[in-house]
Structures are given as C-alpha cells and as structure tokens.
Amino acid sequence: MSLSIQQKFEAPAMPRSDDGRRRKPTRIQSLRQGEIIKAGLEVFARYGFKGATIDQIAEKAGMSKTNLLYYYRCKEDIYLSVLQRTLEMWIAPLEEMRADGDPALEIRAYIARKIRFSREHAVASRVFAMEILQGAPNLERVIRDDIRAHVEERAAVIRAWADAGKIRKIDPYHLFFTIWAATQTYADFSSQIAAILDKPALDGGDFDAAEETLCDLILNGLLPG
Amino acid sequence: MSLSIQQKFEAPAMPRSDDGRRRKPTRIQSLRQGEIIKAGLEVFARYGFKGATIDQIAEKAGMSKTNLLYYYRCKEDIYLSVLQRTLEMWIAPLEEMRADGDPALEIRAYIARKIRFSREHAVASRVFAMEILQGAPNLERVIRDDIRAHVEERAAVIRAWADAGKIRKIDPYHLFFTIWAATQTYADFSSQIAAILDKPALDGGDFDAAEETLCDLILNGLLPG
Amino acid sequence: MSLSIQQKFEAPAMPRSDDGRRRKPTRIQSLRQGEIIKAGLEVFARYGFKGATIDQIAEKAGMSKTNLLYYYRCKEDIYLSVLQRTLEMWIAPLEEMRADGDPALEIRAYIARKIRFSREHAVASRVFAMEILQGAPNLERVIRDDIRAHVEERAAVIRAWADAGKIRKIDPYHLFFTIWAATQTYADFSSQIAAILDKPALDGGDFDAAEETLCDLILNGLLPG
Amino acid sequence: MSLSIQQKFEAPAMPRSDDGRRRKPTRIQSLRQGEIIKAGLEVFARYGFKGATIDQIAEKAGMSKTNLLYYYRCKEDIYLSVLQRTLEMWIAPLEEMRADGDPALEIRAYIARKIRFSREHAVASRVFAMEILQGAPNLERVIRDDIRAHVEERAAVIRAWADAGKIRKIDPYHLFFTIWAATQTYADFSSQIAAILDKPALDGGDFDAAEETLCDLILNGLLPG
DNA sequence: GATGAATGAGGCTTCATTCAT
DNA sequence: CATGAATGAAGCCTCATTCAT
Question: Are the beta carbons of B135 and A42 closer than 8 angstroms?
Fold first, then answer.
C-alpha cells in the first residue's frame, strides 16, 4: 500500500536534472535522509512540531543545520516525511488481519502487533498521536481518503464474524477505536502509566501484562458466552 | 481533594499585601482569570505549549496581551493554571466509584462519566493528553505523589470484587488504563475518529454508541461467565 | 545657596489651585516626597537611571507605584529631585572653606568633610558619580553655570595662599579634582576598595585610615618644605 | 597575566567541534568580535548595562542586531567581554612598576601611565568605573581573587621603599587608592572637570597639567623632607 | 489620597531560512 | 556536499504611564 500525505511531500529539496525532473536519490542522500527522519522522529515526539527546532534535529542527526536543510527544504518537509513514516507504521498491523482466520486468534494477534508497535516504536506512536491531537491538520485528508477504506475492509470482517455467530454483535468501528486506544496508550501515555505504577519507565513485563489483560478482556467481551 | 502542581502555581502576578501573603482576589480578577484559563485551554489544546502564543490567548480572552500579563506573570503560569484545572477535571470521575456498589453498575457509571467528560470537556482532555504525551514534565510528580494513591484505592476495590467472585480476576491497573484510553480517545483523537467515520465531527450519537459498545465489551469481559 | 537643575524640576505633579499656581505642599506631601527621594537615592545608586524601576522605588518607599506617581509625574522627575538633593550635598563641604583660616587646618578640615560625606552619604555620592560618568546630561549646565563659580572662589583662596607663600604653588583646580576624586572614591568605588582590602565592606577604621593617609600626603605635598 | 571574569566568558555563541571544544575563531569572527567589543565599549560607557541596547551596539558596529547575536549569545556576554577587555587594560599599568627602580621615577612613571590610560581609553575607564559603582557584581570575585594579589605585590614594594627610608611611611593601599582615583577622574568625571574648567572637553594640555600637578603633589608628599 | 486595571512602546532572544563560499 | 555568515519575522516580557474608581 502506498499512502501519501501530500504532493509537496513527494519531493524534498533535492536538486533536479536539467529538464526539471527529480533524479533518483544517490546512496548518500538516502542515507542522510534516513538519519534525519530518525532524529526528527525523536525530536518531534518530545517537543511537538513548533517546539522542535531544526538545530535539535540536526544535532541528533550529527550534521549541521545548514547541511540538513540541504536535504529537506524546510522544517515542515522534515515533519511531513516523519509523519509519512509513522503513518505507514501505524497502518501495517491492520493489514494482516485475515477474514478467513479464527476470530480469537486473529484478534489476539492484532492486539499483540499493536502492543509490539507501542513497545518498539513508541516514539513514532507519539508523533502520530500528537498530530491527531492537534486536529490532524496534515493527516485528515489521507485518513479520510485512504485509511478509512482500509478500516472499512476490516470492519467488514468483524461484521462477518458477528453475522456468522463467531463473536457477539458489536460495532466494529468502536471496537477498533477501543483496541487502538488501549494499545497505543502504552506508548503515548507511558509516562503517566509509569508514574501510576511507580516505576521509572515501562519494561517488558509491563507490556506483557498489558497484552494479556487486554486480550483477556476483549476476547471475553467478544466471544459468545 | 486538592491537587497542586507546584507552589509557583498558587500565585499569579497579583499584588500582595505587605506581609507578602496573597490577598483575596477581587471580583474582576477572578473573572479575568477565568476568561484567561478558558481561552488558554483552547489555545494550548490546539497548539501545545510552545505552539501557543500569548497573543492568541489574549485575543480569545478578549483582552490585550499586556493586560493578560497583568494577571499571569508569564506564559508558563497560564499553562500551569490550565493544567491544574484539567487535572482536577480528570481525577473527578474516579472519585465517585464506590466499593459497596454493584460492580456492573459502578463500572458502567464510571465509563459513562469518562465518556461524558470526553464529550463535554474535550479541550481539557487534549491539553492533559498533550502534556502526558510530552513526558508529563509538569505532571509527573503530582501523578506519582497524589494520583497514584487515588488509583490504588480504586484498584483495591476492583481487587475486592474479584476476590469476592463478583468479577473475573483481572489486573486492576491495566483495566483502568484501558478504560481511560478507550474513553479519552473520543476527545483526544476525535479528529481521527471523525475522519474514519467520515463525518465532519463527532456528534452525540457517536458518543452514545461509544459508551454502549464500550460498556458491553468491558462488562462482558469482566463479569463471570 | 540655591542650585536648580532645571525648571521642570521645580514642579512635580502636584495639583494646582484654580488659578494655576502651585499650592504650598501639605505636610503629607512633603513627607511622602522625602520618602520617595530617599528610596530613589538607593535604587538609582545601585541600578542607574535606566536600570532603576519605579516599582523598586515604590516598594522601598512603602507605597504603590500608582501612588508614587501621584507625587512625581514621571520617573525622570524623581531622578531629577534625587539629583538635586545630591548636588546640594555635594557642594556643601566646599562652602565652608575659609580664606582667612590656616591653610593646613582648612584643607585638613575640607578633606575630613569630604571623607565624612563619602562615609555617611555614599549612596548620594554614587548617584552623583553615575550621572557625571554618563556625561552629566542633567548636571552639565548647573555645573557650568553655578558650581564653577563656587569653585572659582575657592580656587582664588588657594591661589592667595600660594601667593602668600603659605603653600607651594599649585594649580588649584587640579588640586580640587584630586581631593574630590581621592575622597569620593571611598564612596563610589568602595566595592573595589573593599575587595582589594579583602573585607566584606569598608568600616570606620578604613575611612579613618583613608583620611589620615590622604591628609598626610596632601599636606606634605602642599606645605612648603 | 590572564584574568578571567567567568567561564561563560570564554565562549560566545560560536560553534564548537564535535567534542565540545571551541574551534579556533576564523578571521572574520575575530574581526567582527573586535568590532562588537569596540562598539559595546562606547555604548556601555554612555548608558550603562541596562541602558545600553543591542540595537545601539549593532548599529555602531555596522551590523544587524541578529548578526551581532550570531557572535554573542546575549547582551550579557557582550558586556562581559567588554568588561574583560577593560579589566586587562586597567591592570596593565600596575604591572610595570619595579621594586629596584628609583621610587620617584617609578611613581612618576606610574602616574603618567595612568593619566595616559585616562586620556586614551577614557571609554574603557568609564565602563570599568560604572561596573564598580554598581557594586562590581561581575568583577568582585576577580578583584578579590586575582587583582588583590597584584596590588599586594606592589604594596610590598612601597613598603620596602618606606622601610629603606626612601619615602615617608605611608599606607601603601590608600596611596594606590588615591593615585587611581586622582588619575581616573580625568576619564570618568571628565564631563564635570570640563564644565568646571569651562571647556567643551578636556584637551591634551589639561591632561599634561593634571599629570604635572599630581606628580608634584604626590612626590612632594611622599619623598622625605 | 490611594489603588486596581489597562495599555503601548520597546528590548531581548529564538529560529527558520537564505546567501556565499 | 558542507559550512559559516547573515537576516527578518515573531514571540516573550518589562516598564513607564494613563485611566477609572
């Protein structure tokens, strides 16, 4: 699947060939852009778009600000690239849910993937969350245009399971909203959760417990008595 | 209950009496401060701390920037006041859950209160969420010191219900994390949800559906088969 | 003697009678103005004109800023009043030097008066010094117009003593400049002097030693061998 | 000798190499910093720290405010650099006084150097004076820690001369205070002196007369009858 | 007399971005 | 490719001063 946030998105600052078309990025360009995205992910996650500074990103990426601006025209372009990346990561787990599988197994696996995402890509999750929180100015369109369709497909699966009596009747959309929220919270609100658990930070055991509790709750809630 | 984020918190720019204690705020002071908090809530929710500008808040509050700074020494003080307000609103629903009530009713009522909060105070919820998202720099301590204890009390209730066989065994903390996430998402991530539902914004019916789905799911999940 | 810095000087903010003439200041007006001048002296001495704030002065004077501005139209007026005061204090010691006295005694007494001034009115001395340092924008005229004449009178005394062979020939102006500088330095530069002497602040003994050393030096330097 | 006001002092805004050490300043950096210090000297001398504005300094230095802030992180850093410069100039004349020289010649030469400093670097002298006047907040430590020792060395020379009967017994510290004050006054208080002498400004003849009068007075005062 | 409320100008600093090398 | 130099817009905050009670 290819989701694209915006057109301006597809073309960073890179020089063009004489006829105005973009050239294929050189090896070093791809390399540097990857470093920048990685650095940007961390900085945007912590400080938000306005709060982040190009200097911070450049430093974390180990290059000068001016050099960074050689690869990305402006701050917003970095941000959009970062968002694009998070978007792809966000959608991935959903893709794998299969209509012909066993509902319990499929749902359990989906929850597991989402929890793993929160655990391994908490920073990306937070960038995504912050964008949504602010009204999703850069994501609204792509969500409405592309992601909605994907969700609709999966919702149909849920609905089919319910119609077949394999799970209780439930609004599939709100089921997804609940699963998303309940899994992502371990990335997005981990500082609150860690504070409540009186730990310095969440560890592997916490994520395991989260997954188990959540699977129990949801599967018990979903499966027919 | 009185939660206090910080000491500096307790006193805006207002003049003091000779002995250094705060005087009782005049009517107009309370009025203006209320207007500022209200405006700040909206602006901080949309743009985050760094992204918000005093000018925006002042304009929304219908006063000049300088006048606003007559009531709050600096931007951070406004923000802390706003956070304080959201914190109090956030904790309130938890307080009402009663150990001697019927588990199903109590949990259902708790979820309803949380959903109502998301519906009626979405802006406050977002400010709170954004603070947590950024690592809760201003809330970490009060969560660890005060809120944790409150949650522990309610967790004990859940545990007691489970021990009495009234509900299934479940980790009470993760249950709360799930409920919080699943309810607050309708405030914090409403723009995503609305986009998925292909609506311009969430309406009352959406919140009702959310509440119903969530109650079904959680209660089915919790109550003994 | 009456030295007047400027015309605007003669009339603070005080209300006028109906025919526009100033009224005689009431007792409370004189009282408050005295408090303000005293406070202003300290604040201007420490922070300079720009660095001083009306708030600081008001606080030190124990009144509200607005109230202070009831007595003085603006910051500059306070400053000018303060300067006026320092000017009068500065000129006083010079007035007492008598032509018909014994040169040694007169000069010794003059130095003693100047040292006493530095000791007892260090703050005023510093305000005066700071004004001069900045080019004496408010004092230049009155120095040229009034003080110069006073100095000229005393210079004539010195010259007469020299002509009479009571003291060596010396340029009387530069003699005064030396005495002024050498005595005032114990007020104006006391922080440097205290640091060199490795003390927290100058004490009575230091001023005594200063006076003695200075008198010895100058009298030995002046009196005919 | 190397006097250092503060650590923060040693490094303007300039970029660092990866290991955090400062790089050698480029030619243009040294150039611009010199221009800034020169401009700062004049502006701080006239208006004091608070009274001076970065804009004024930038304009005098012939660059934009922002560009100036590219070289110095903040106003205080400029000021500290300026102070550092004046400090070095202030201490220099003291260093050359030699114990094995003839007292009369050495003292005369010292006075001459101090007068020359007042004449040629009046602006620096005033910046230094203003700092001291305000309580030497930035110089107190370096005076107490470093300069005091230098003065102590020279004081020992004076004391040795006195013990050897080459000059009268005198407190060497207060002797220095007098010489400093009496020479620096021609820089610091030149506007007052010029007004008393009824001249627009001091000229070479005035400094010569000052030097001569002062040398006469002090040497007559010091040398054994 | 005295104080609370309000304002506008000005100053410091940050930061994205552009220019030159 | 990469960096140093330069800029302008914008934001926070201070402060003298005025208005209204």
Answer: no
CA gap B53, B62 in Å, rounded: 14
Radius of gyration (C-alpha) of chain A in whole angstroms: 20
- List all nucleotides in chain E with at least one atom under 7 A from a protein Cβ: 1-20
pLDDT digits (tens, 9 = 90+) for A31-49: 889 999 999 999 999 999 9
CB contact under 8 A, A143 and B180: no
Give tens-digit pLDDT for D55-67: 999 999 999 999 9
CATH number of A9-78: 1.10.10.60
- The domain spans of chain C are 9-78, 96-222
Number of residues assigned to chain D: 225
d(CA D156, CA D151): 9
C213 with D151: Cβ contact below 8 A: no
Measure CB to CB from residue D173 to each of C132, C185, C196 and give the nearest one: C196
Q: Annotate B137-166 with three-state secondary structure.
A: CCCHHHHHHHHHHHHHHHHHHHHHHHHCCC
Question: What pLDDT band is residue D94 in, cutting at 50, 70 and 90?
Answer: very high
Residues of C in contact with D220 (CB under 8 A): 168, 220-222, 225
The residue among B122, B102, B146, B127 whose CA lies nearest residue B6 is B146
**Superfamily for domain range B96-222:** Tetracycline Repressor, domain 2 (1.10.357.10)
Give D21's contacts (C-beta < 8 A, 6+ positions apart): none
Q: Backbone phi, then psi, for B192, in 5-degree steps? A: -65, -45
**Nearest CB neighbour to B168, from listed A175, A214, A220:** A220
Cα D6 from Cα D139, distance rounded (Å): 9
- Which contacts of D71-75 are long-range, i.e. CB under 8 A and separated by 24 or more positions? D71/D12, D71/D13, D71/D14, D71/D29, D71/D32, D71/D33, D71/D36, D72/D12, D72/D13, D72/D33, D72/D36, D73/D12, D73/D13, D75/D49
- Nucleotide nearest residue A31, measured CA to C1': F1
- What's this model's pTM, rounded to 2 decimal places? 0.92
